[in-house]
Specification:
mainly alpha; 5 helices; flat
Amino acid sequence: MKITSQEDFWGGVMFIAFGALAIFIAQDYPFGTAARMGPGYFPTWIGIILVVLGLMIAATGFKDQGTGIGKWPWKAMVLISLAFIFFGWAIDNVGFVIALFVMVTLASAAGREYRWKEAIIVAIVLIVGSWALFIKGLELAFPLWWWR
């Protein structure tokens, strides 16, 4: 069999790997039942779903015609990774608003067509929506600013 769509095949392999990793890590936690879910229940089922989806996606790599995998997007990988790392650090140190704003603008810069005005609008909408959902709706105790 010949792989005709590299992107589908390797994307499926990635799903399978992440799913298998989730299942492997979840083995250390009690599984529980559907009525009384343990801490291993959710990651195990997510891992199973990822493996099944990965198998389906990888299988299409043998029947669909793809364009091939291009060069590795280093800029996007670095900027998106930095955005998530910064957010994880900043949410407790500089506050919810700045952490989310910087994360969105950094992640937006990873795209092929970066427009700073659009990134700012998306960041503002995401900040307001996240504030409404997480801080007001779910009453999570994230500090909005570093001084609060």
